[in-house]
Amino acid sequence: MALSPAERAYIYDSLVSPQVARTDSRKPTQFRPLKATCSFLPNSNGSSRISTVDGLECITSVKASVLRTNNIDELIQVDVDIQGQRDDSDLCVGISSVLSRALTSNMDRSKLRLTDKYSFQLFIDVVVLSIPVDFQTSSYTLYSLISLASMGCYLALRSTKLPLLVSTTNDKEVEEEPTFSDDWESCVDLIPNDSDALPTLMFVVGIVGNNVIADPSLEEQQVAESGMCIGYNKGNIAAPVQSVSLSTVDGRGFSEKALLRSFDLVRQMGSAVTNALDTIAAQNPGEVEAAF
Amino acid sequence: MSRMEVYSPEGLRMDGRRWNELRQFSCQTNTHPNASDGSSYVRQGNTVVLCLVKGPMDTNRATSTTRASADGPVLNINVSYPPFAGIERKKRSKNERRLSELSIVLERCFLKTIVLKNYARTVIEVNLTILSFDGGLLAACCNSITLALIDAGISLYDYVSAVSVGIYSETALLDLNSLEESDLSFVTVGVVGDSDKLNLIMCEDRLPLDKLERLINLGIQGCHQLRKLMNDTVKEVGVELLSKRQ
Q: Transmembrane residues, as ranges (chain B) (predicted)?
């Protein structure tokens, strides 16, 4: 919804005050309810569906294929498709570049290596099913989708299963194509439960004055002076960290204090969100019907 | 057996069905209550389609620029085919000819089914997402649009249910999967309600003309079965809604 100047001023003033008053009376650190399920697509190695109450929804699929390559950089491909947006729109390109940096920076590539010449290539495809009807006429930029899409990718990667390799991993002498076990029961997790290399989660926080708010709603995004997109991995802030503009009007810089506060906020949220997503990944319904 | 048999002499198909049996069909409505005015999920075998309907709304709220028409709604149907839908990953361009053809066929079909006079100068946006593909694309899309339009409360004359029918030498086979689709000629038929009126028919292969009647007859029977299944789901949802109101 496009806000009138009076509405903007009211929301801005209540967010900038020392006792942050948010439009939906949330605490500054509080998320809105999210709904998520995983591994429901029959044709993918891993998949997830995550949706918010504003009607934004991400479906993420992870598909693996065997590739003959030595180039480690091309093993993970991230592709974002937003309904109603061109593939080369700023939003699509922006979100997919942040996500691919987040996912490739802390990935255990030894899991993808099959032999000296062959590797698994992972295709991570994110589909945003619908965006609000008033996107064209309002001032929010929807870069907050990074946060949602990143949670979707995390969940899809956690639920990804790869077939078990039965041929030898050493093919220096004999060139051999990798062969896999026919039994899908003996598949292996891409990220085992005790793994250290978890995918980086990205959080988008809104900055208003010196206050930092978690999971800004669409109204709050329109009045936010700036936004930060911060990576989180196992209790620490991780690369990439970058500022994003949440609104097309009244953008401003932010103070050092706000930056440090947003790091604290992400550290605080990160563990709770990781735990919640891990619980969902462990349930593993594996049926399409269960997801809808 | 050296290769897959499309239809065995015992009368069984690759997936164990008889000639006149549908694949497992399941559907739900109102799957995305926050994102759209009407939404549905349809699964026919391993083909899974999501449909989100926004509207009827003012033309200036639509995502693409459209001119209002005084005689009825403007129906915008977008089919998105994500790269992960098939077994092999394949990226398709947004304006692929086959997908735009599909949306034109569906648009024509539903403009005959929606009560046009109620929706003059409005836009109805229909977004289809194919989550998983295993044959019968047009049929699954058509069924999901019907359910989503019902969920959005848009007045229709009756259900449109669609199914694909293929021909294997002398036998007509109902509701093909993608392996059968690649081997056989097939036609997709869409039927209005429980009548014999066809609202949709599309054939992309060569078919002997003398067999067409048999195919269409089998298709109509299949459509009536699907209509019953969809109607049962809609009635269940309706009863649940009414019980909440009291």
A: none
Check if the beta carbon of residue B131 is closer than 8 Å to that of residue A59.
Answer: yes
Cis-peptide, bond into residue B82, ω within 30° of zero: no
Euclidean distance between CA atoms B196 and B203, whole angstroms: 18
For β-strands A118-128 and A76-82, DSSP reports them as: parallel
Residue B95 burial (10 A CB sphere; 0-12, 13-18, 19+): exposed
Q: Letter for the amino acid at A273?
A: V
Q: Which of A127, A145, A153 to mutate to test the interface with B (most CBs of B within 10 A)?
A: A127
Question: Can you list the domains of chain B with their CATH numbers?
Answer: 7-244 (3.30.230.70)
Scored b (16 or more CB within 10 A) or e, B153-166 reads ebeeeebbbbbbbb
B43, B61, B84: residue with CB nearest A125: B84
Q: How many residue pairs bridge chain A and chain B with CB atoms within 8 Å of each other? A: 90
Q: Alpha-carbon torsion A214, A218, A223, A229, what sign?
A: positive
* Rg of chain B on CA atoms, in Å: 18
Per-domain residue ranges of chain A = 12-170+180-286
Residue A45's region, left for phi above 0, alpha for psi from -120 to 50, else beta, is alpha
- Rounded CA-CA distance B222/A202 in Å is 48
In CATH, which superfamily holds the domain spanning A12-170+180-286?
GHMP Kinase, N-terminal domain (3.30.230.70)
Element (H, E) at A263: helix A256-283
Q: Are B178 and B135 in contact, with CB atoms under 8 Å apart?
A: yes
Partners of B61 on chain A (C-beta within 8 Å) are: 133-134
- pLDDT tens per residue across all 292 residues of chain A: 788 999 999 999 999 999 999 999 999 999 999 999 998 888 899 999 999 888 899 999 999 999 888 777 788 899 999 988 888 889 999 999 999 988 887 777 778 888 888 889 999 999 999 888 788 788 888 898 999 999 999 999 999 999 988 887 766 666 678 888 888 888 888 888 888 788 999 999 999 999 999 999 998 999 999 999 999 998 899 888 999 989 888 788 889 999 999 999 999 999 999 999 999 988 866 666 667 7
Flag if A129 and B31 touch (Cβ within 8 Å): no
Taking the CA of residue A235 and the nearest CA in chain B, the distance in Å comes to 33
Query: Cα angle at A95 between A93 and A101, to 5 degrees?
Result: 100
- Nearest Cα of chain A lies from the Cα of B41 at a distance, in angstroms, of 8
Report the residue of chain B nearest A78, measured CA to CA. B83
Residues of chain A that touch chain B, judged by Cβ-Cβ distance less than 8 Å = 41-44, 47, 51-57, 59, 61, 63, 65, 79, 81, 83-84, 86-87, 123, 125, 127, 129-130, 133-136, 288-289, 292
